[in-house]
Amino acid sequence: MSGELSPIDKAKFVAAKRSVDYVEDGMRVGLGTGSTAAWMVRCLGELVREDGLKIKGVPTSTRTAELAREVGIEVISLDEAKWLDLTIDGADEFDGDLSLIKGGGGALLQEKIVATASDQMIVIADIGKEVETLGAFPLPVELIPFGWQTTQALIEETLISMDVLGRNSTLRMNGPRPFITDEGNYILDLHLNRIGEPRQLAMVLNQMPGVVENGLFIDICDSVIVGFGDGRVEVRDINAGTVEESRLDFLEDDNLFSDLSE
Ligand SMILES: O=C(CO)[C@H](O)[C@H](O)COP(=O)(O)O
């Protein structure tokens, strides 16, 4: 069954599988969005159903909320939880400082709010997400629909003075219509190619009227669990400065694996 998954999917799966080792009874856990996070939610659901793990989950999107309920995780709102022990989420890119680009799935706003309200954020990613410098992946920026083209023009003009290589942007579409986020906003994808000063760019973007949030996560992620296509997993902890390696045996997880690949 595992042979049906691509090396990237295997890498995502092993990272997701390893991450649930960090979840303990009684925790309030932020549940990320995206394909890697979805596997983490399914792995957690299995622990809840089969091992009696007791947790409360705060999802970062309606998609994740549906999946969490489906697999048996108790879902509560962030306001009910108030504060979280741990958030586990995917990323589109991560660098050596564990700065991230997120929002490929359009859920960056809730993801940033939830991760910031957590004692710890663990990112789960395949090795292909690691970069030396952020920016090859288009940077998602969530915009208020009102006057979005004016906001886009302002952003592109401001980018002239920023340390980036490209500065054109595209409105994210869902077929013939703009993609709409869970909060009813638009996503503008910035094609920057290289972001020299992510911290500065994140601050500048968030000061613009019409911008709700940007997909740069700076000083939010504590560790990244990197999965490889051959089953290897690395846990990189930015605070401890450690890298811990392990390997996951695919065969042991065939049932879950086959569920996930459907
Ligand atoms: O930020 C995200 C959603 O807004 C995702 O975590 C990110 O796009 C990674 O997705 P995937 O795990 O499917 O590669």
TrEMBL record:
<keyword id="KW-0413">Isomerase</keyword>
<feature type="active site" description="Proton acceptor">
    <location>
        <position position="111"/>
    </location>
</feature>
<dbReference type="GO" id="GO:0009052">
    <property type="term" value="P:pentose-phosphate shunt, non-oxidative branch"/>
</dbReference>
<feature type="binding site">
    <location>
        <begin position="89"/>
        <end position="92"/>
    </location>
    <ligand>
        <name>substrate</name>
    </ligand>
</feature>
<feature type="binding site">
    <location>
        <begin position="33"/>
        <end position="36"/>
    </location>
    <ligand>
        <name>substrate</name>
    </ligand>
</feature>
<dbReference type="Pfam" id="PF06026">
    <property type="entry name" value="Rib_5-P_isom_A"/>
</dbReference>
<comment type="function">
    <text>Catalyzes the reversible conversion of ribose-5-phosphate to ribulose 5-phosphate.</text>
</comment>
<comment type="subunit">
    <text>Homodimer.</text>
</comment>
<dbReference type="GO" id="GO:0004751">
    <property type="term" value="F:ribose-5-phosphate isomerase activity"/>
</dbReference>
<comment type="pathway">
    <text>Carbohydrate degradation; pentose phosphate pathway; D-ribose 5-phosphate from D-ribulose 5-phosphate (non-oxidative stage): step 1/1.</text>
</comment>
<feature type="binding site">
    <location>
        <begin position="102"/>
        <end position="105"/>
    </location>
    <ligand>
        <name>substrate</name>
    </ligand>
</feature>
<dbReference type="InterPro" id="IPR020672">
    <property type="entry name" value="Ribose5P_isomerase_typA_subgr"/>
</dbReference>
<dbReference type="GO" id="GO:0005829">
    <property type="term" value="C:cytosol"/>
</dbReference>
<feature type="binding site">
    <location>
        <position position="129"/>
    </location>
    <ligand>
        <name>substrate</name>
    </ligand>
</feature>
<dbReference type="GO" id="GO:0006014">
    <property type="term" value="P:D-ribose metabolic process"/>
</dbReference>
<dbReference type="InterPro" id="IPR004788">
    <property type="entry name" value="Ribose5P_isomerase_type_A"/>
</dbReference>
<dbReference type="InterPro" id="IPR037171">
    <property type="entry name" value="NagB/RpiA_transferase-like"/>
</dbReference>
<comment type="similarity">
    <text>Belongs to the ribose 5-phosphate isomerase family.</text>
</comment>
<protein>
    <recommendedName>
        <fullName>Ribose-5-phosphate isomerase A</fullName>
        <ecNumber>5.3.1.6</ecNumber>
    </recommendedName>
</protein>
